[in-house]
């Protein structure tokens, strides 16, 4: 889809630019980006950065983790321990909505950055030679995100940069330098030497017994970690999904020369942000006619002469899950197998251990997980089928976090009892405790 603008991009080694702002803050423009799928994004991102022969990398926050990486030449590296990603700084400054910005630079060209809900879009953070070439990328992004809000700056003035570049860099924007990998044998020898030295030292002096952290404090620290996990993965019950679909029924399919093409909703915390896309079917169809038919509280936004969107939010359509406790297991696989005939497809991924960063003590040592804290794993789940078949999922009791919920109108996919013109697709994760 993005092949059309690829010929306009500079080679990766020529994309990376280091620009210093304010009190010596160095930002990198033109990193390469790639999504990180599955669990353990920190380990997976570091290994992938090594695979790409990068010198620096950073990883965006879950649940939509992305890897940014680049090979910084020593001549561009004044203080390699204080390099920050300009694209991530932009994304962290725009945690809601879909936004993009074009920054012209007198020497380097036109830099394009885009973010969706605080995550860098992997197609962006690129330099182009002309504004027309930058516009090609923006047009392609707008097809995927019709509500894209674009900002064009007149020039990138180092003395007076945009506010998001002038502010103090977010800690998550700081790049990590990749050290050279130590050969396994050398690493084993080094660890052995450190172990022997530590043993000798401890025997030479009377050991100082440090009181272990109280159990209550330990559990409280872990509770805080698990609470953050719960905030990242709000759970959606069948009742929550039914509430979202009830809002869909307020959306007119044909109205005043406009036809509904698609509805797409994305979960954000305990709510859903939805967008209905319309196409102009008649030459007498007017924007004001569609806007007048929008339910109260919905936002009308024209895209071009023949396309427009309605945007709204479904409140209180999710709930938090207590990740500290074990969940009662159910045979959800058999259940999905039983209901699969009424769907076009049901795809379930392999189980992946839920990535959890343990809290640390005052010395930075990770605290042991209490036995009372449950271990969790997740599986990716994608379900596609007729809108009427969604009710068949009402008996599924396992915790599910749905990331997207979409409706295609006049899709006419599927076969037999799974064939329909109104096709729904759910994409998310299923959680289960490890016994």
Explain the overall architecture.
- The longest helix has 21 residues.
- The strands form four sheets. Strands 13, 14, 15, 16, 17, 18, 19, 20, 21 and 22 form a ten-stranded antiparallel sheet that branches.
- The protein is built from eleven helices and 22 strands.
- The relative contact order is 0.11.
- The N terminus is likely disordered.
- It starts with a helix and ends with a strand.
- The protein has 435 residues and is α+β, with helices and mostly antiparallel strands.
- It has three domains: 175 residues, no CATH class; 122 residues, no CATH class; 76 residues.
- 25% of the residues lie in helices and 31% in strands.
Unreliable residue stretches: 1-11, 206-213
Gap between N and C termini: 43 Å
How many β strands by DSSP?
22
Q: Which percent bin holds the helix content?
A: 25-40%
Strand composition percent = 25-35%
Specify the overall morphology: flat
Radius of gyration: 25 Å
How many structural domains?
A: 3
> Main beta sheet: strand number and arrangement?
10 strands, antiparallel
The average pLDDT score comes to: 82
SS-derived structural category: alpha+beta
């Amino acid at each position: 889809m993005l092949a059309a603008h690829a010929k306009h991009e500079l080679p990766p080694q020529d994309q990376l630019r280091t620009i210093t702002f304010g009190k010596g803050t160095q930002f990198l423009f033109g990193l390469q980006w790639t999504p990180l799928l599955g669990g353990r994004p920190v380990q997976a991102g570091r290994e992938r950065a090594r695979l790409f022969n990068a010198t620096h990398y950073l990883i965006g926050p879950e649940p939509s983790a992305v890897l940014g990486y680049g090979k910084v030449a020593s001549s561009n590296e004044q203080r390699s321990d204080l390099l920050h990603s300009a694209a991530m700084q932009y994304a962290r400054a725009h945690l809601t909505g879909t936004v993009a910005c074009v920054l012209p630079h007198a020497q380097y060209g036109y830099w394009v950055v885009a973010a969706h809900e605080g995550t860098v879009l992997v197609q962006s953070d690129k330099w182009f030679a002309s504004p027309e070439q930058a516009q090609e990328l923006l047009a392609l992004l707008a097809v995927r995100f019709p509500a894209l809000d674009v900002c064009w700056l007149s020039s990138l003035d180092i003395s007076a940069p945009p506010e998001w570049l002038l502010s103090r860099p977010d800690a998550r924007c700081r790049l990590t330098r990749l050290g050279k990998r130590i050969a396994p044998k050398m690493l084993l020898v080094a660890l052995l030497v450190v172990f022997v030295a530590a043993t000798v030292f401890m025997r030479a002096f009377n050991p100082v017994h440090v009181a272990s952290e109280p159990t209550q404090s330990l559990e409280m620290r872990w509770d805080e970690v698990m609470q953050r996990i719960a905030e990242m993965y709000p759970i959606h019950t069948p009742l929550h999904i039914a509430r979202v679909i009830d809002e869909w029924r307020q959306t007119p399919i044909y109205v005043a020369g406009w036809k509904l093409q698609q509805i797409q909703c994305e979960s954000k915390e305990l709510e859903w942000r939805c967008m209905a896309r319309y196409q102009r079917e008649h030459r007498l169809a007017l924007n004001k006619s569609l806007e007048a038919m929008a339910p109260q509280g919905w936002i009308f936004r024209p895209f071009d002469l023949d396309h427009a969107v309605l945007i709204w939010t479904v409140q209180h359509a999710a709930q938090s899950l207590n990740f500290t406790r074990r969940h009662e297991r159910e045979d959800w696989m058999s259940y999905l197998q039983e209901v699969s005939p009424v769907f076009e497809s049901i795809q379930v991924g392999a189980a992946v251990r839920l990535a959890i960063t343990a809290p640390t003590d005052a010395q930075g040592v990770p605290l042991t997980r209490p036995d009372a804290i449950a271990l969790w794993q997740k599986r990716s789940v994608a379900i596609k089928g007729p809108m009427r078949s969604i009710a068949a999922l009402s008996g599924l009791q396992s915790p599910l976090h749905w990331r997207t919920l979409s409706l295609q109108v006049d899709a006419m996919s599927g076969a037999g009892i799974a064939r329909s013109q109104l096709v729904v697709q759910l994409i998310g994760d299923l959680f289960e405790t490890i016994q």
